[in-house]
Amino acid sequence: MSQHTQSPFPAYEWPEGKTSAFCFSVDVDAESPYQWSLPADAPVTLGQIEQRLFGPRVGIWRILDLLDRYEIKATLFVPGLVARNHPDLLPAFVARGHEVGLHGYFHEIAAETPADEFARALDESLAIFKSQAGIVPAGFRSPAWEMTPAMLAEVKRRGLYDSSLMGFDLPYTIDGVTQVPVLWAVDDAIYFKFTGAQTDRWPPAPQGGILEAWLDEWQVLEREGRLMMLTIHDWISGRAGRIRMLERLLDAVTASSDTWIATVGEVAAHHVSSVNRDRFSVPMRLPQASGPHRFRAAR
Amino acid sequence: MSQHTQSPFPAYEWPEGKTSAFCFSVDVDAESPYQWSLPADAPVTLGQIEQRLFGPRVGIWRILDLLDRYEIKATLFVPGLVARNHPDLLPAFVARGHEVGLHGYFHEIAAETPADEFARALDESLAIFKSQAGIVPAGFRSPAWEMTPAMLAEVKRRGLYDSSLMGFDLPYTIDGVTQVPVLWAVDDAIYFKFTGAQTDRWPPAPQGGILEAWLDEWQVLEREGRLMMLTIHDWISGRAGRIRMLERLLDAVTASSDTWIATVGEVAAHHVSSVNRDRFSVPMRLPQASGPHRFRAAR
Amino acid sequence: MSQHTQSPFPAYEWPEGKTSAFCFSVDVDAESPYQWSLPADAPVTLGQIEQRLFGPRVGIWRILDLLDRYEIKATLFVPGLVARNHPDLLPAFVARGHEVGLHGYFHEIAAETPADEFARALDESLAIFKSQAGIVPAGFRSPAWEMTPAMLAEVKRRGLYDSSLMGFDLPYTIDGVTQVPVLWAVDDAIYFKFTGAQTDRWPPAPQGGILEAWLDEWQVLEREGRLMMLTIHDWISGRAGRIRMLERLLDAVTASSDTWIATVGEVAAHHVSSVNRDRFSVPMRLPQASGPHRFRAAR
Amino acid sequence: MSQHTQSPFPAYEWPEGKTSAFCFSVDVDAESPYQWSLPADAPVTLGQIEQRLFGPRVGIWRILDLLDRYEIKATLFVPGLVARNHPDLLPAFVARGHEVGLHGYFHEIAAETPADEFARALDESLAIFKSQAGIVPAGFRSPAWEMTPAMLAEVKRRGLYDSSLMGFDLPYTIDGVTQVPVLWAVDDAIYFKFTGAQTDRWPPAPQGGILEAWLDEWQVLEREGRLMMLTIHDWISGRAGRIRMLERLLDAVTASSDTWIATVGEVAAHHVSSVNRDRFSVPMRLPQASGPHRFRAAR
Q1: How far apart are CA C246 and CA C249, in angstroms?
Q2: D24: β partners
Q3: B85 touches chain C (CB under 8 A)
Q4: Three-class HEC string of A216-258
Q5: Which pLDDT belongs to residue C121?
């Protein structure tokens, strides 16, 4: 075959003789996205806040127990507000051996947050992580998985890895920042988030079909030497039925000793210290509007 | 493990040597939510009202027969309007041994109803329950499962239990009120409600996948000693296919003698008279808007 | 048990020793609903009209062949416009032994059509049925399954049966008109209608789960002695995958000789000439708005 | 049976003793539809562009490898912008033996594009195909599968085939242009397209049910001698789980030697040179608005 018929990227090199990788990540959002989206003059109601407080009260502990049963170290991304409101969380996560990462302060939405507010949110969160658990997080995940060039610059300035984009199903370097990519297909919220509010866009999906899809995703990622980044949420997957689903997924993932089950931070550290760092490096590419009647203008 | 690694809540204590609990609840809405949502100047049409009257005509009787076959006593929450329009319902429910509970008068939506109207709706409903069936209900369930602090205060003032929130998958005490929680995952309406109106947000889900999800939910709730609160509606689950689904669910739930199958009122009475009442007690926590540009303001 | 614990309605009596009934109905809409909904100044595009013309070109013939294979006589409800645009349809339906019924002229939507227009649409359609196929239809089905009191009066005046409402899962009499009810759960359009337009509300559902739900629906309707009214559309279920689904459904329905497989007109004729006519008779009940702040006003 | 009871169209004649046909088509959209829909003043974000660049970076190469494993020659429809931004694509497609076809320049949406812009987009795309890969494409597929009479005239003037409409499940001739029809049921985007934007209309469907539906579609198309036009997208079906789904589909399609697996161009060339060309020929039929209160006006 000529050079044209090859993918522009070679195989990814994993450590310790492993041939694929798996990360278990938790976005510990609890009440923060709800409070961010709440209009200041909204009527005071109790339904959604109680549903979300189920996370810190019950769900997250059930997830921690699940991780213990499978002997998996996870990465838990925690907004500053959630740490402040529930000060037992960060110390418990660290005590049980997991990585903790930044996830905004108020679960700020990228398009609604000026760059200086984003920087301040990062620094305030860093201070809370330090004071509550005595640690300095190595990584950041954007609330709602959206990034701007300004955010990426702030992340870069602080030497953090990022875990918010989806340009590969492998770790990559974008504009000099280590990116450990997420993946909508194996996120729980898009399938199961439901609170009964008018903002719900669909009812919770039955787990059976989604589990089958996740297993298919894993089967091909594993055989092709890729990274599967599972992401769940405390108040969503801490519910009973989803725990059963996660057990079935982890039964499959932990069946092979060829897979590197690692925290997001461990994957990022491997990337930056290996040949992958330069082999899987792309510039930041900005989208350009080309819509109605741009044809002539663009030429 | 250090104290930090433990859930802040201990195990729940069930009565009679049982290790988990199951409630079968019915929100007997019939035409009431439709009439509440109908604009006063809407064209007079027959489609949706006939679909909903299927409940009092056929569906609810089919559900009562199902309950008899499985020897289960249910709790039926009935809006005052539905009792008034269908005066054979409350007496039949009581005669067959079920609990009846309050569910608003017009199926009022919390955010659209002033506190004094809510109080009046409660009292008018209590009067109808008394006159039609000679009983005083012990509990309340909010239409659409939304509560306000004012509503919770009215419920507390009348010594009622509440069954509208989701802060645990166990009974709990919130601001002094006994809460027997509901659970979206095992509600029929979010999956199956469909009338052909523009307000429908999705078509009815096929029952097979939902049943499988409900069985998973039950499997983990049962093994962890929790409460499963099933909720169905007369005009939705009184249809043939959903009866078949409920049979399969009840086959599983009734298979173990370790599960306490009880009315919501029995569960509430147990809670308030046991150690659980104080162990599972939380204050009412009000959501606080933290959205766009609240970062500086909030600090 | 006391009288209160009984359903207010007795068992339905089927003819010929049968214990349940099944109707196969087709709403032969083709291009008519699209043209009705099209703004007069919409850009002229070809995508949706071609998708719908697939019905008269291919889909309906495939459905007729399916009916022949299972030896089932169906009822095909045909808008006047569709008969006029495709004059080979009505004669073919009659020649192959099926019943044909009225379905509006332009597939008029009830809430958008004054009573006198509705009456005129009925009469114009009757004229086309007479001239093209030499027959006088016995029944009417409302486009989009919505009725108004005025429409019901026009149907009554002409001595037609109606097949548009859902107040029972048995034939019934409403305001003196014979009603052979439809059922959203076993309609193809709500699951499978999709044209790629912005007005689509969800993608086509995979057939497997829907078939399983339809079989459950049938299982309970059959054992309880009810009527299953299947409804499909030429351009939707004339597609290959849905034909396979219908084969599997008909395999189940035709397996028992206890089921009366009949046209909608045969079921209506049986109803009106049997004891069921009076036993299953209800008045027309009009919905009354009771929404925000009607509590005091209504008392 | 009388002539009325027959479908107006005879059986389609396939070449080489084959009895049915299958095309594997890819709409290589990458970032183009996003950029077309992007408002000029939208905030600059990185989430969606990275998700779409996954196509040219990873997804399309994975699809090419899949095609090699099954020894299938596909047709890849490529917008001019995508070819310009990713100049390695067209040469690689041609080198690996696949057909390439036109797909607009900016992925223009039909209803938003004047006829002269559409013509210019065609010609500019033709120029890019010539300069990058030295070829003149034989066919066109409309972005978003919508056509106007003006577009069809431009396609006709250049002697191209079209693959954008759905009036048959066989190749046909419309207004003199060869049409190799597409089919929503076996398009990946309507089920799986999801980017996390507010414009998403539903979450990705689990593949299992969709695969089962595709296999049913294929089973009936194959036995009835029809054409199955599979369509996938680089950034959607280049993801791991969908590759697994496609493998299972191709296992079924390639199991029979009676099926003609061909490029869209080969199917179009056969159509135009066979008896089918005139047997399956229809005029262009324009939709006519008949909506509210057109009844009297139309007569």
Answers
A1: 5
A2: D230
A3: no
A4: HHHHHHHHCCCEEEEEEEHHHHCCHHHHHHHHHHHHHHCCCCC
A5: 95
DSSP H/E element including B102: strand B99-102
Calculate mean pLDDT across residues D162-179.
Answer: 98
Instruction: Kindly state the DSSP code that residue B186 receives in the 8-state scheme.
Output: G
Q: Which of residues 210-269 of A touch B (CB under 8 A)?
A: 239-241, 243-245
Q: How far is CA B259 from CA B187, B262, B274, C149, C273, in A?
A: 20, 9, 18, 51, 51
Closest among C87, C92, C153, C145 to C119, alpha carbons compared: C153
Contact B203, C205 (CB under 8 A): yes
Cα(B168)–Cα(A59) distance, rounded to whole angstroms?
9
CA distance A265 to A270: 9
Q: Closest residue of B to C227, CA-based?
A: B240
DSSP string computed for chain C: --GGGS-SS-PPPPSTT-SEEEEEEEE--TTHHHHHHS-TT----SHHHHHHHHIIIIIHHHHHHHHHHHT---EEEE-HHHHHH-TTHHHHHHHTT-EEEE--SS---GGGS-HHHHHHHHHHHHHHHHHHHS----EE--GGG---HHHHHHHHHTT-EE----S-SS-EEETTEEE----GGGBSHHHH---SSTT--SPPPPHHHHHHHHHHHHHHHHHTT-EEEEEEEHHHHTSHHHHHHHHHHHHHHTT-TTEEE--HHHHHHHHHTSTHHHHTEE---------TTHHHHT-
pLDDT digits (tens, 9 = 90+) for D64-76: 999 999 999 999 9
DSSP string, D89-157: HHHHHHHTT-EEEE--SS---GGGS-HHHHHHHHHHHHHHHHHHHS----EE--GGG---HHHHHHHHH
Task: List all residues of chain A from 10 to 49 with a beta carbon under 8 Å from chain D.
Answer: none
Question: What are φ and ψ of residue A292, in 5° steps?
Answer: -30, 120
CA–CA gap between residue C59 and residue D167 (Å, rounded):
10
Subunits next to C (3 or more Cβ pairs <8 Å) are: B, D
D95 contacts in A (CB within 8 Å)? Answer: 1-2, 4-5
Query: Could you count the other beta carbons within 10 Å of the beta carbon of residue A175?
Result: 16
H or E segment and range at residue B240: helix B240-253
Q: Which of D5, D190, D298 sits opposite C194 (nearest CB)?
A: D190
3-state secondary structure of B177: strand
Cβ atoms of D49 and A285 closer than 8 Å: yes
Supply D92's token pair: 């690689």
Q: Among residues D223, B93, B291, which one has the least CA distance to residue C66?
A: D223
- The answer to whether residues D106 and A290 touch, using CB atoms and an 8 Å cutoff, is yes
Size (chain D), residues: 299
Instruction: Assess whether pLDDT exceeds 50 at residue D4.
Output: no
What number is the ipTM of this complex?
0.95
Beta carbons within 10 angstroms of residue B130's beta carbon: 12
Among A298, A299, A20, A47, CA closest to A171 = A20
Distance CA C212, CA C235 (A): 22
Average of pLDDT values for D203-227?
Answer: 97
pLDDT for residue C1 is more than 50? no
Q: What angle do CA A203, A207, A213 make, to 5 degrees?
A: 110
pLDDT at B161 over 60: yes
Q: What is the pLDDT of residue D292?
A: 75
- C-alpha span between B270 and B262 (Å, rounded): 10
Who among C4, C216, C290 is closest to B88 (CB)? C4
Burial class (CB in 10 A: 0-12, 13-18, 19+), A296: exposed
Measure the CA dihedral D171/D168/C193/C99, to 10°.
-160
Distance from CA of D282 to the nearest CA of C (A): 10
Sign of the Cα pseudo-torsion (D61, D67, D71, D75, in order): negative
